[in-house]
């Protein structure tokens, strides 16, 4: 198993689809994972340590 960290959440230009970039902790490889808009929003809020007014789906599972 390879340990990764969240590098960024970007929008792919041609399809306007959110992409989660995962980078190897002990290497240089990057894995793009296409995700949905709701997941992208939740991950971006977590990365920016921002809280939404209403709970997101992930918040309900905590």
From TrEMBL:
**Top-rank taxon, per record:** Bacteria
Name the coiled-coil region(s): none
Q: List the protein's name.
A: Bifunctional nuclease family protein
Q: Where is the BFN domain?
A: 1-62
Stored Pfam families: BFN_dom
GO function terms (MF aspect): nuclease activity
PROSITE patterns assigned: BFN (PS51658)
């Amino acid at each position: 198993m390879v340990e990764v960290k969240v590098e960024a959440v970007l929008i792919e230009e041609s399809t306007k689809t959110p992409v989660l970039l995962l980078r190897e902790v002990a290497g240089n490889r990057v894995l793009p994972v296409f995700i949905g808009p709701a997941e992208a929003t939740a991950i971006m809020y977590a990365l920016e340590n921002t809280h939404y007014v209403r709970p997101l789906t992930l918040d309900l599972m905590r």
